[in-house]
Amino acid sequence: MGEQGMAQREGQQYHWKNAGYATFEDFLAALSSGRRKTIRRERRDAQSGLEIHCLTGPDLTEDHWDAFFRFYMDTGSRKWGQPYLTRPFFSLLGETMADRVLLIMARKDGRWIAGALNLIGGDCLYGRNWGCVEDVPFLHFELCYYRAIEWAIDHGLARVEPARRASNKIARGYLPSPVYSAHYIADPALRGPVERFVMQERRAWSRRWNGWRRSTRRSGRARTSPTLA
Known about the structure:
By secondary structure, the chain is α+β, with helices and mostly antiparallel strands. Helices cover 42% and strands 24% of the residues. It contains six helices and seven strands. The chain has helices spanning 24-29, 33-47, 62-78, 87-97, 139-154, 188-219, and strands spanning 7-17, 51-55, 101-108, 111-120, 124-132, 159-161, 175-183. α2 (33-47) packs across α5 and α3 crosses α4. It is globular, with a radius of gyration of 19 Å.
């Protein structure tokens, strides 16, 4: 695509990769003792007093979508500008591809308070949206990171790709992974600035990636080992 004149973009996300784990405890065993202790504490605190449900296929109902839309609107309004998905969108998602949707929901005293929307690929679980109407310590980590890992292990998926690229994922088993895209800009006046930007971004990402690889080699850890955390 680059040879055809498209601007090549290289970036970074944090992905969890399944090293053949049979259970979530097998995954924890690959971490340092400090990381294991932290994750177990976070999960215990997040789950306290809550019911957590992993819903897909026929288990998804309009009640779930009503609740999740409230979470989506609350998160979008507070943090990332104007929400762009409509309530009918979520119903359509459930009607047309429910078997490719994983909704991880938390309920407190009979009321849904938080949820994470994932899409199920052939060998990957893709995190898309998260929201809540009540703040619970570590609940975001539980629904978006740990439950996603657990579900992927239970269903034999090779990896989990969360929606955002926050570096706090490293401490929870999600490691830096390069991602690529290519872009054609028709307007010559816009093409130049975009190409300069993606070139600068690509160089910056390359420096970070190479620095991380050097640090893992110095520490004697495999580049894909979650013990980095």
